[in-house]
Amino acid sequence: MRTASILFLLAILVLMVSVIASGIGPYRIPPIAVLNAVLNWPFGNGHRDAIETVLYNIRLPRVLAAGLVGSSLAAAGAAYQSLFRNPLVSPDILGVSTGAGLGAVIGILLGLPVLAIEGFGFAGGLMTVMIVTALARALRGSGDVLVLVLAGIVIGALAGAAISLVKVLADPYDQLPAITFWLLGSLAGVKAGDVSATLPIVLLGLIPLILLRWRIGVLSLGDDEARALGVDAGKLRLIVIAAATLITAGAVAISGVIGWVGLMVPHMARLLVGPRFDRLLPAAILLGAAFIISIDTLARSAARIEIPLGVLTAVIGGPVFVWLLARNRRRQLP
């Protein structure tokens, strides 16, 4: 009952943050006007006023994209942390974020349109994890998880080196600024079509995590205990990796590389609902959506120029994560 109440309050928080964020900008819109425009949208007469034009064309797509990216990264982070039984794991542990970054910067180097750059980023993230998984299978020993993580570190480092090479080859007056800004994370150019294209990909990854949340929670007990309870640990691990990779690659493709979300938000969710994955996953999804919507609103309104999301998440996430570690440490002391 307590968990249900917390999840309900988090859902209300996401709704409130979304309404407030939709009204903030150079053209201010009161929250009641935002609600009226959204509720009247299906029954409109086809003629939009200034408020509806700003909301439907600019604000709402960006707010929806921010919520989608935040919930995706937080869900992937929670899944990876439960899978590897390590609270310090983040969605880029297998190199998916770096691989997506490499794909996107190659698209920028080739002068491709935005949609193609996003597609290159998505494909780069998937290909990186496929290479990591294949390498781990080829080198499989007694510690499968350890080999997988080490393979992810190696391939991620190679992808990072390739990104540096692309930066050297890029036009310093045109392509290099675009590459740098994309790698820092931003939702400045997102459109409704980007959200529509990414939403099915994210749902395709989220649905298996939601349906298998009880079994994924069993993985935190270890492979032997999972097998004793009738769970095929190896098969389930591949499903979780595939689903979390799909979610992360889809999010990174439209927002760029945004750090700390997948690492920090699951910790915050654990403080609210505990470590059980069946409770942790929905709490992380809602909390991640509210967090990135708030951060994105701050990024576009705190200064005259837009602040990259990756900078803000690092500035805010670092101290918050240290506080969480200190808090957990004090709890463990006798």
Straight-line distance between termini: 30 Å
Number of domains: 1
CATH architecture: Orthogonal Bundle
What share of the residues does DSSP label as strand, in percent? under 5%
Dominant shape: globular
Which value, in Å, is the CA radius of gyration? 20 Å
H-E string: HHHHHHHHHHHHHH
**What's the CATH superfamily, by name?**
ABC transporter involved in vitamin B12 uptake, BtuC
Number of helices: 14
Descriptive overview:
By secondary structure, this protein is mostly helical. It has one domain (60-332): ABC transporter involved in vitamin B12 uptake, BtuC (Orthogonal Bundle), CATH 1.10.3470. It is 78% helix and 0% strand. It is globular and about 60 Å long. The two termini are 30 Å apart.
Which key phrases capture this entry?
ABC transporter involved in vitamin B12 uptake, BtuC; mainly alpha; single chain; about 0% strand
Short description:
With 334 residues, this protein is mainly α.
List the topology elements.
Blueprint: H1 2-23, H2 31-40, H3 50-84, H4 96-109, H5 114-138, H6 144-169, H7 175-184, H8 192-211, H9 213-219, H10 223-228, H11 233-255, H12 261-273, H13 277-301, H14 309-332
Helix pairs in contact: 1-2, 1-3, 1-13, 3-8, 3-11, 3-12, 3-13, 4-5, 4-6, 4-7, 4-11, 5-6, 5-11, 8-11, 12-13, 12-14
